[in-house]
Amino acid sequence: MKQGLLITFACMTLLACNNQQKATEKGAIFLSEFDTPYGAPPFDQITVEDYVPAFEAGMALQSEEIDAIVNNPDAPTFENTILALDNSGSVLDRVSSVFYGLEGTDTNQEMQNIKAEMSPKLTAHSDNISLNEKLFERIKTLYDNAASLDLTPEQFRLLEQNYKNFVRSGIMLDEAGKERLREINKQLSALTIQFNNNVLAETNNYKLVIDNEADLAGLPQSVISAAAEAATAAGEEGKWVFTLHKPSWIPFLQYADNRDLREKLYKAMYMRGNNDNEFDNKALISEIVNLRLERSKLLGYKNFAAYALEERMAKNQENVYKLLNDVWAYALPQAKKEAAELQAIADREGANIELASWDWWYYTEKLRQEKYNLNEEELRPYFKMENVREGVFMVANKLYGLNFKKLDNIPVYNPEVDVYEVTDADGSHIALFYTDYFPRAGKRAGAWMSSFRKQSTRDGEDIRPIVYNVGNFTKPLADTPSLLSLDDVETLFHEFGHALHGMLSRVTYHGLSGTSVARDFVELPSQIMEHWAFKPEVLKMYARHYDTGEAIPDELIGKIEASGKFNMGFITTEFVAAALLDMDYHTQTEEQQYDVNAFEKASMDKIGLIDQIIPRYKSTYYSHIFSNPEGYASGYYSYLWSEVLDADAFQAFAEKGIFDQETARLFREHVLSKGNTADPMELYKKFRGAEPDPVYLLKNRGFIE
Ligand SMILES: [Zn+2]
User: Domain map of the chain by residue range?
Assistant: First the structure.
């Protein structure tokens, strides 16, 4: 299970324009569909000066569009109100998609300044729409009379979603309440941006510089070479630099014999945002959690979790805690067993230590070696990034008949980006797909999917999506291509699953398209893709030695299979700990001055987390839940919730053959193409014929036979 983010932009749907004159100079490029092949963003023509005028124009245009709906003298109809609302804001969408896409991959001070400048304006704009009473009156009239409107199920779904969104955004509040809500939204927007910037700064500011070769003992040559290149890039020629980016710190923890340095690097990683310096996030967390609570209470909920979960599959905090605690009951004892095994190795080696969190990776590699005679480094040559990408394309071809053709005439925002045209089995155009896989300064950590344009049907025209995947995988070196870790491979498959969800969307309305589904349903299409990554017949298709071209030997495939559930106690425990921490913050019912470290410790003590494991994210760099006004707040559990679904869904393939065409057809038809046009459980049952059975999750993780 990967925790790659799925980035969606707040539904900034509609607008008008006093600034249009100005925008024809700067920002004009965003005012109409891009006049390019496939409507791809013309990155070679977009400059940083275009964004602010385009945002201003986009907001003004949408305001005009809203005014036109509200002032329409005709009685409200689906077309003149709901459809008009869905169609509004196309300019704002276009500029937002490009700006926030690049702000995630190639940010700099200028981009961050624009983000900080635009954020309160965009929040206010979005509030102007969602708190527009006349607009809501029309929606409510339609909603109250829906039975007599002769709507298609998809039309009713869109109407209902709009109605609920308005209610959940505070339309029923009195004037004072609305005023306070606006203020809270504005503050949350600014605070979460600050949180994110602090994490970015703390990640990028740190370097572990090694100048004594002896301190590299234990590290594989590829890791040493990468550290030498990083040193050169940092102006430390002849030394070795390790950073807080995953492809750097994880191998160091896995292999470095120098325990003090492991401790130093690991602490630097998990102390991000917690150093009592200008980038400290503790005070921000307190404010964010309290503001979310105040907002939820204002809207009539007992806490933020109640507000957030109401529209998810989980429905309420009891259901979330139940799943997390049920899995925890299997995971923690397993993790303790693993800790004992690791301690035993250390004892046998005469290390004379008490296993600590910075030792876990190191002794886990030794245990892996001992149990499976498997060294992750010997696998890497078979997982050249280009081969893995080809592999995921082949899986999509065998399942859904899709074809991928690299295009060299589409402008990219960075030379590391590749673009593909995706076509269906019958040759028809499906989507453009961009990949951007390597870490660089200015790119956010982690991996995610989003789009420059979402699928919808407008005036009968099928608007095809433009989707991208971003990762921070192992970089190529001067003399070696990018050779991925198993973790990287899994992440690549995961994000590609989100991409398929966006690309295969076949809906009418923009607001219901692709990945615009409940947070705890959205990881089903991504996580199910992970199941194919390491199946023997799939490995045979793509895992070839980068140098010799030799297919991965059966012996290594056997080892990968045998070790598939290895370290699962740890993996599950660190995840569930973080998910519970998220829930603990967002189920508070009273505002309080948080001592973040104490709160986190109490939360972990309550569940008995062992000292040798820390939550996958500690509070002060928990970007999933604190770097966005809502984001994954009270939603980190979603990966596990979706895993109940993906484990059960893959079982359908496992039973009939992993490329069974009928099963694939059903999955594409009822899940991948449907977006948010129906209740997720209804979609799932149409695919599977029944609700998911949680037993497959426990089996896949090796907790039960
Ligand atoms: Zn995901």
Answer: 5-130+132-168, 180-195+280-374+567-636, 206-270, 382-562
CATH class of 180-195+280-374+567-636: mainly alpha
| pLDDT computed for residue 247 by the predictor | 85
Q: Ligand 1: distance of its center to the CA of 491 in Å? A: 9
State in Å: Cα 177 to ligand 1 middle: 35
Longest dimension (CA), the chain: 84
Owner of token pair 């939820």:
296
The reply to whether 180-195+280-374+567-636 and 382-562 are identical in fold is yes
Q: Which fold has domain 382-562?
A: Neurolysin; domain 3 (1.10.1370)
Q: How far is residue 628's CA from residue 636's CA, in Å, rounded to a whole number?
A: 13
CA dist., res. 693 & res. 687, Å (int): 14
Which stretch of DSSP H or E encloses residue 469? strand 466-470
Burial class (CB in 10 A: 0-12, 13-18, 19+), 73: exposed
pLDDT on residue 142: 98
**pLDDT at position 236:** 94
CA 211 to ligand 1 centroid distance, Å: 39
Q: How confident is the model at residue 19 (pLDDT cuts 50, 70, 90)?
A: very low
- CA–centroid distance, 500 to ligand 1, in Å, is 12
Q: Convert 445-483 to b/e letters by CB count within 10 Å (16 or more is b).
A: bbbbbbbbbbbbeeeeeebbbbbbbbbbbbbbeeebbbb
The predicted pLDDT at position 445 comes to 84
Per residue in 633-670, pLDDT (tens digit) is 999 999 999 999 999 999 999 999 999 999 999 999 99
Contacts of 128 (CB under 8 A, 6+ apart): 63, 66
Q: What is the pLDDT of residue 18?
A: 39
Sign of CA dihedral 65, 66, 71, 72: positive
User: Which residues are CB-neighbours of 698 under 8 A, at least 6 positions away?
Assistant: 327, 330, 704
Is 7's pLDDT higher than 60?
Answer: no
- What spacing in Å lies between the alpha carbon of 529 and ligand 1's midpoint? 11
Average pLDDT over residues 342-369: 96
Tokens representing residue 385 in the block: 């990034």
**pTM assigned to the model:** 0.91
Alpha-carbon distance of 592 to 596, in angstroms, equals 11
Other Cβ atoms less than 10 A from the Cβ of 299: the count is 17
pLDDT for 467 beyond 90: yes
Q: What are the φ/ψ torsions at residue 435 (nearest 5 degrees)?
A: -120, 140
Whether 287 is catalytic:
no
Parallel/antiparallel/unpaired status of strands 461-463 and 5-6 = unpaired
Task: Indicate if the pLDDT at residue 24 is higher than 70.
Answer: no
> From the CB of residue 401, how many other CB atoms can be counted at a distance below 10 Å?
15
Reported CATH class of domain 5-130+132-168 = mainly alpha
Spot the catalytic one: 287, 495, 523, 574.
Answer: 495
Distance 449 CA to ligand 1 centre (A): 8
pLDDT digits (tens, 9 = 90+) for 385-432: 999 999 999 999 999 999 999 999 999 999 999 999 999 999 999 999
Who's near 85: CB < 8 A, 6+ residues apart? Answer: 13, 14, 66, 69, 135, 139, 162
In angstroms, the CA 238 to CA 242 distance is 13
Tokens of 652: 């359908």
In this structure, are residues 469 and 101 in contact, taking their beta carbons and an 8 Å threshold? no
Confidence (pLDDT) at 280: 98
Spacing of C-alpha 410 from chain mean position: 25
Spatial neighbors of 367 by CB under 8 A, at least 6 apart, are 338, 341, 342, 345
Q: How far is the CA of 451 from the centre of ligand 1 (A)?
A: 14
CB distance 472 to 247 below 8 Å: yes
Q: What is the pLDDT of residue 459?
A: 84
